Structures are given as C-alpha cells and as structure tokens.
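S.,

Sequence below, as promised.
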Amino acid sequence: MIKKSVQTTQSGVKIDFKNVKLETITTMVQNCAEGRCECMSNETKKKIQNMQVDGKDGEVQLHLEGDISKEEIEEALKRSKVLNSK
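The prediction came back faster than expected:
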C-alpha cells in the first residue's frame, strides 16, 4: 500500500511517498502536466508553477511549487486514478 505524507514548504508543498515505484509518480506528474489528470481542480492546477520528482523506487518525493495548500494537494491525492488504481 502506498503511504503519503504531505508537508507545506516555503515554495509550496512536498509529498513523501513510501512503497511506490518512481515510475508511478513520474506518470502521475506527466498526466498532470499534460492536462490528462482529473484529480485537481483547474484552479489548483493554475497555482502550480513547477513539479519536481526525486528519489528512487520505494521512496519518492514530489515537490510542487506555487501558491497551493496542503489541503488542496491531499484532496487531489485522494482522487488520483494513478495512485488509487491498485
């Protein structure tokens, strides 16, 4: 089971994922960047200025830059088809 921890940072929000493949998070970010995800509202998408994935299989970090709240991102993660398809 994928574990997620969302924290507010100076530049936005950081998500720590455990028990997940790096490819899964990369796919999720690509879908979002290309407008193919439905997990975030258009309003939230507009606030994100940059997305960066770091880490390795098992431990992946996703850094989101912009005027976004921890709560917005937690809601989006709950709706993510990539994360919740298993």
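The beta strands are 3-8, 12-18, 48-56, 59-66.

Coffee later?
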